[in-house]
Specification:
It is built from no helices and ten strands. The protein has 112 residues and is mainly β. The model has no long low-confidence stretch (mean pLDDT 95).
Length: 112
């Protein structure tokens, strides 16, 4: 299984970014997947997740601002991030649920 995150960058507070997670090596589309983030000096935390059925869940800190989605035809999961805040600054990762190996992540930096 291989996961590759992309789409991070530097954005001003209030701005938007869309992260992408391309998956390969998974036997089917029947898996749950999530986005996670790790800020400097903090533990990695869950941001959003989506089951195989398409039902999603978002952490309270990002609810109403971030949206997870998936395109099974493209083997890609997205995280649309709007109204970004400085506290959203972190390295963002995607992973299957249950967790597999971690990818390199993509850096998101929000300037205030």
């Amino acid at each position: 299984v291989r996961l590759m995150e992309s789409g991070g960058g530097l954005v001003q507070s209030g701005g938007s970014l869309r992260l992408s997670c391309t998956t390969s090596g998974l036997p089917s589309d029947n898996y749950a997947i999530g986005w996670f983030r790790q800020a400097p000096g903090k533990d990695r935390e869950g941001v959003a997740c989506m089951g195989a059925s398409g039902i999603s869940n978002h952490a309270d800190a990002v609810k109403g601002r971030f949206t997870i989605s998936r395109d099974n035809a493209k083997n890609t999961v997205y995280l649309q991030m709007n109204s970004l805040k400085a506290e959203d600054t972190a390295v963002y990762y995607c992973n299957t649920i249950p967790l597999g190996p971690w990818g390199a992540g993509t850096q998101v930096t929000v300037s205030s």
